[in-house]
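#onboarding

Welcome to the new folks! Below is a worked example of what a typical request in this channel looks like: someone posts a single protein sequence, and someone else replies with the predicted structure as tokens. Don't worry about understanding the tokens yet, we'll cover that in week two.

Example request:
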Amino acid sequence: MLANVIDVTIELLADRPELIEPVGLLRFDEWGRPPEPDTAQWWINVTRQESGRGDLPVTFVACDSEGEAVGAVGIAEFDPDDLGDRSPWVIGMVVRPDRRRAGIGRLLVDRLDPHARGLGFGQIWVATGPPATEFYRRCGYRPAEVMRSPRGEDAHILVKRM
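Example response:
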């Protein structure tokens, strides 16, 4: 059964600094194992650095009716480094496992479009693994290329033109 997303609001993380640590911990729980950094504090610090207000990077947080963080997504100037000629990039997209498949990820990703347009961008890029590729396609992103990472993993590069 899908969770109800009506109780979710999308806010700028810079306006909710008390949620920087919970969002950092969500990201740590999702990715905090080798070869990625494996300390919670690293993920919290990066989330703080990505919680800008106007210029990039900026992060949006999905909050439930109790004000708890249930997901987050950001955009940054470029990521990964070898694709720096394209910008901006989706970063740190995560939804709490018990709230997935309820439309929260879509609400978060859709919030990036007006912010990127407001900064003068006409497109948004994302690099992701195969499991998330279909999610981004449903959100309007189109395949651009597949790259092999230094660790031998496929990175699917998708773009959304606005």
